[in-house]
Design a protein that fits this description.
With about 400 residues, this protein is α/β, with parallel strands linked by helices. The chain has helices at about 5-10, 20-35, 55-65, 100-110, 125-140, 145-150, 155-160, 170-185, 195-210, 255-260, 265-275, 280-290, 295-310, 315-330, 355-360, 365-375, and strands at about 15-20, 40-45, 70-75, 120-125, 190, 215-220, 230, 235, 340-345, 350, 380, 385, 390, 395-400, 405-410.
C-alpha cells in the first residue's frame, strides 16, 4: 500500500459521508505538490458549557488532519448559536442570549486543546464576519438559495408536512454556517452525520461566491451510555448532557472510568470503533476473543475506559482510576454478570427510584423501597442512596438492593 493510500484510509476511518473521495484525493495531492496545507474547518455552537465524548468524534478527525500537516480552524458559532440549529428537532429552538453564548464559548476554548494540538489550531468566532455582513449582506446571502432546496432538509420537510411551525430565522442557519466556509475559504468541512445538509449548502454557497467547493466529511453520532442492542441493532439516543447519558471530557478520572464501565458489551465495541486509537484489525481480534470466551469482556471494557481516561487526563490518573474501580468492584463483591432491566422516564425527564425498583420487581412495592433506603440498604453505582425521593435521569446504573441482589438498571 502506498503512503498516499495509507493517508486516505486513515482519514476515512469511521467516516459516514464524503463528498467526494476523488476530490479529497486530488486536493491532498495538490497540497503535497505545492506544499500548501489544506484549510480544514469544523464549527461548534456553544449551546452548553461542556464538551462530551460525542463532540470529540469530529475533533479527533480534525486532529488527524493536523498530524498530516494541514491547517485546522475550530469555529465557535457565537453568532449562529443565537439562532440555534434545529437539526434533529421537531420544534423551533429558542435563540440564546449573547451572555449565554459567550459563557459557553469560554469553556470550549479551554477544553478543545485536550484533543487538538494547541500550536496547530486556529480558533475563530463566526461573529467576526457574520456581524460585519449587516442586514444588506444577509439579504444578499439569502438570495443565493431558494426555499424549495431548504425544504429538502429532512427536519424542515417533516415539520412543514405535519404543520409544525418553522420560523423564518431558522432558514438562515444553514446559510450563515455556509458563509463561514466562504469567509475561511475552507477546503474541507467536518461535522456530525446530522449536519450533512448544512455542509452541502456550504459547497453551494462557495460556488456562488466563485470559490472551489469544499469537501464534506461527516462523522457518526456517538450513542449515549444507555444505548443497547434491540432486535440485533444498537439502539439509543445520541450522547447528550440534557439526557444524562454522557461522559464529559472535564469529568474526574474516576467518574469517567465508572461511566464507561457501565455501558453494555455491544455498545463497548461501538465506542472502540469510534473512540479507540487501536487498529481496526486488533479491535476485531479482541471482539472475536470475547465472543469465543478467550477474553473476558470486562477486561476489554477496562482497557477501553483506561485508554479514554488517559486521553483526557494522564496515563497515571487512568491507571489509578482502573485500580480504584477494581478495588471497589472487588470490595463490594459486584458480580460481572447481573440481570438487566429497562425503565422509562416520565414527563419530568426522571423516574422515582422507588417506582423504578418496584416496576422491575427488585422490591415488592414502593413502600418497601422507601424502607430499604431509610435503612441504608440501597446503593447506586457504589454510593449509598440517602434520599427516598431520588429521581433517576436517563442513564445506566448498577444497583445493589439489600445485601446480595445486584441489577443493572437502564433508564431511558
Amino acid at each position: 500500500m502506498s503512503n498516499a493510500e495509507t493517508v486516505i484510509n486513515s482519514l476515512l476511518r469511521g467516516v459516514v459521508d464524503i463528498v467526494s473521495r476523488d476530490e479529497l484525493v486530488k486536493r491532498l495531492e495538490e497540497s503535497r505538490r505545492n506544499g500548501k496545507p489544506l484549510i480544514v474547518k469544523a464549527g461548534f455552537d456553544p449551546t452548553a458549557p461542556d464538551l462530551h465524548l460525542g463532540h470529540t468524534i469530529v475533533l479527533q478527525k480534525m486532529r488527524q488532519f493536523q498530524e498530516f500537516g494541514h491547517r485546522v480552524v475550530f469555529v465557535i458559532g457565537d453568532f449562529t448559536a443565537m439562532i440555534g440549529d434545529p437539526t434533529g428537532k421537531n420544534i423551533t429552538r429558542p435563540p440564546l442570549t449573547r451572555e449565554q453564548v459567550l459563557e459557553s464559548a469560554k469553556t470550549y476554548t479551554e477544553q478543545v486543546y485536550k484533543i487538538l494540538d494547541r500550536e496547530k489550531t486556529e480558533i475563530r468566532f463566526n461573529s467576526e464576519w457574520l456581524s460585519a455582513l449587516g442586514a444588506e449582506g444577509i439579504i444578499r446571502l439569502a438570495a443565493k438559495y431558494n426555499v424549495a432546496r431548504m425544504l429538502e432538509r429532512d427536519d424542515f420537510k417533516k415539520r412543514y408536512t405535519s404543520g409544525v411551525s418553522i420560523s423564518v430565522h431558522e432558514f438562515l442557519y444553514p446559510l450563515l454556517q455556509a458563509y463561514d466556509s466562504v469567509a475561511l475559504r475552507a477546503d474541507i468541512e467536518l461535522g456530525g452525520s446530522d449536519q450533512l445538509f448544512n455542509l452541502l449548502v456550504g459547497r453551494e454557497i462557495q460556488k456562488e461566491y466563485g470559490q472551489t467547493e469544499q469537501i464534506v466529511i461527516t462523522m457518526p453520532l456517538l450513542e449515549g451510555l444507555d444505548a443497547k442492542l434491540v432486535d440485533g441493532k444498537l439502539t439509543g439516543n445520541k450522547m447528550s448532557k440534557s439526557l444524562g447519558n454522557y461522559v464529559g471530557i472535564n469529568e474526574p478520572p474516576d467518574t469517567m472510568f465508572g461511566k464507561l464501565m457501565s455501558i453494555s458489551d455491544e455498545l463497548m465495541w461501538r465506542y472502540y470503533e469510534l473512540m479507540s486509537r487501536l487498529p481496526l484489525d486488533e479491535i476485531s481480534r479482541m471482539r472475536e476473543d470475547c465472543l469465543s470466551g478467550r477474553m473476558n469482556p470486562m477486561e476489554a471494557k477496562k482497557s477501553l475506559a483506561k485508554e479514554i481516561v488517559a486521553r483526557f487526563h494522564t496515563d497515571e490518573e487512568a491507571e489509578k482510576a482502573l485500580l480504584n474501580f477494581t478495588e471497589v468492584f472487588s470490595r463490594k463483591n459486584v458480580p460481572e454478570k447481573m440481570d438487566e432491566f429497562e425503565v422509562k422516564t416520565e414527563e419530568n425527564g426522571q423516574i422515582w427510584v422507588c417506582k423504578a425498583l418496584a416496576s422491575v420487581k427488585a422490591v415488592k412495592s414502593t413502600s418497601d423501597a422507601k424502607r430499604l433506603i431509610e435503612q441504608g440498604g440501597l446503593y447506586i453505582n457504589n454510593e449509598r442512596v440517602m434520599d427516598p425521593k431520588l429521581g433517576l435521569k436517563s442513564g445506566s446504573y448498577i444497583v445493589k438492593v439489600g445485601k446480595k441482589l445486584f441489577i443493572k438498571l437502564n433508564v431511558i
